[in-house]
Amino acid sequence: MRKILITCLLLVLSGVMAVLVNCGSSNEANQQKIGAECTKLEDCDDDNPETEALECILDFKGGYCGRKDCVASTDCPEGSLCADYEAGLYCFLVCTDKVQCNQNRTLDNESNCSSNIDPVEGGEDKLCIPPAGD
Q1: Shortest CA distance to 100 belongs to which of 88, 118, 114?
Q2: Of 2, 9, 67, 123, which one is least surrounded by beta carbons within 10 A?
Q3: What radius of gyration do the chain's Cα atoms show?
Q4: How far does the chain reach from its first CA to its final CA, in angstroms?
Q5: pLDDT tens digits, 36-91
Q6: How far apart are CA 31 and CA 101, in angstroms?
């Protein structure tokens, strides 16, 4: 009986660890700081040549690092899609839940998982969008 309880406990703990790992997992877009908060272009720069096209969009509360000048979502890193935002075409983080939007943002400047901005290819995907700036 004791052996069964220990086995069950280990299975539960391994399941909890899998959930924790998945919650904290980072996709390519998060690694390149797409969706991160910013107040200036340098906040989006991490000395990686692949992130040179990032721009700090200041229309949002806390800013938003987006890859500019995409034409299609294939121009965006994994975990993001090209969207036609009023300031131009940018790669935005894709989400199914708000928690996916805030890996590189503070509580004061959280993004929401929203369908307010559509990817250029259309579809049902939601994007991480912060509230409008102050």
Answers
A1: 114
A2: 2
A3: 18
A4: 61
A5: 999 988 888 766 665 567 899 999 999 999 998 899 999 999 999 999 988 789 99
A6: 13
